[in-house]
Amino acid sequence: MKAEKYNGFYDNQSIQNVLEALKASAGFQYKIENNTVLIEP
Fold first, then answer.
1. How many structural domains comprise the chain?
2. DSSP-derived secondary structure for the chain
């Protein structure tokens, strides 16, 4: 997996909303399990 950096500001958004926005632009999948975010290529 290529290392990439993203930054930005999200006011009053849930982690799910932020991850969905990043997923759309970066093309990764994620899972949330027991308060842990797992990012998959």
1. 1
2. ----------SS--HHHHHHHHHHHH--EEEEETTEEEEE-
The DSSP bridge partners found for residue 23 are none
- CA 31 – CA 9 distance, rounded (Å): 22
Residue-wise pLDDT for 1-34, tens only, equals: 567 788 888 899 999 999 999 899 888 999 999 9
The residue whose two tokens read 């093309």 is 27
Name the residue among 28, 30, 31, 32 with its Cα closest to residue 2.
28
**pTM for this predicted structure:** 0.71
Domain that holds residue 39: 1-41
